[in-house]
Amino acid sequence: MLIDLLRTKRWLRVALSGLSVALLLGGVALVGYPFATNMWRDRIQERLQDQIASPELQQAYKERKVETGDSLTRIKIAALGLDTVVVQGVTPSALRAGAGHYPQTPLPCEGGNVAIAGHRTTYGRPFGNLDQLKPGDTIELTTPIGGCVYQVAKDPFVVAPTDLSVIDPTGERSLTLTTCHPKGSAAQRLVIRATWVKDLKAA
User: Fold this and answer.
1) Burial class of residue 103 in the structure, from the number of CB atoms within 10 Å of its CB (0-12 exposed, 13-18 middle, 19+ buried)
2) Structure confidence by residue, pLDDT tens digits, 94-138
3) DSSP strand E in the chain: where?
4) How many alpha carbons lie under 13 Å from residue 172 in its C-beta half-sphere?
5) Predicted local confidence at residue 201, as pLDDT
6) 151-166 pLDDT tens trace
7) Which run of H or E residues covers position 168?
8) Which domains, and CATH codes, for the chain?
9) Can you tell me whether residue 148 is helix, strand or coil?
10) Closest by alpha carbon to 194, among 136, 142, 146, 148?
11) Is the previous residue joined to 182 through a cis bond, with omega within 30 degrees of 0?
C-alpha cells in the first residue's frame, strides 16, 4: 500500500525525503551541540587559568571588584575528579565557562552561604555527576587570596527550578552547589549543601 502510494504520489516522496533530511540534521545537531559547547568552554577555561593567577585579579578580588565572567575561584571535588575555574556571575554568557558564582552570595570561603551554579550536560558539564556526592565528601575552593575546604553535609536533594531559597543565608559558613535535574532537563534543580571545615593559606 505505502509502496504504491510512493510510486504514484511524487509529493509524498518529496515529503518523506524532506522529513528524512530534517531528522538526520536534528540528530547531528543533538549530538554535536554538547560537543561544540565543550570546545567553547575549553577555550574559555584556558583564559581563566591564566587570569586566576594574575596579580591584577588578586587586586580586584581584594577590592571586591571582580567582573561578571572573570575568574573567581577554583573548585576541586576529589570524589568526582573535578577541577575547574568558576567565574563571577550566573548569566548565560558567564556560565559558558561551566560554573559561576551567584553574585548575591558571599565570596568563596567567606562567612555565610556561598553559592555556585554549574552546567550538567553542556559547557564541559562540570556538575554532571553532582548527584553522586555523599555526606563526608570534600569540596575545596581556591581563590586568588587563599582557600578553604567544605564537607558535604547531606545527600543531594531536589527543588523546583524557581526555588532560590537554597542560596539564602544558612546562619553558618556553608557552600551550596546547584545544577539542572535530571540530566538533559531543567525541570528541577539538584542541590548540594556542604559546611565549612577549614581555611587554607594562600600559596
Assistant:
1) middle
2) 999 999 999 999 999 999 999 999 999 999 999 999 999 999 999
3) 71-77, 82-88, 99-101, 113-118, 138-143, 146-152, 157-159, 174-181, 188-200
4) 10
5) 81
6) 999 999 999 999 999 9
7) none
8) 35-200 (2.40.260.10)
9) strand
10) 136
11) yes
Q: Report the distance separating Cα 102 and Cα 175, nearest Å.
A: 11
Would you state the cell numbers that stand for residue 94, as one nine-digit string?
Answer: 558567564
One-letter amino acid for residue 136 of the chain? G
pTM tops 0.85, yes or no? no
Cell reading at 147:
582557600
Amino acid 31 reads: V
The C-alpha cell at 106 is: 558571599
CA 82 vs CA 55, 67, 124, 126, 203: distances in Å: 25, 24, 11, 7, 20
| Closest-CA residue to 53 (of 27, 34, 33, 71) | 71
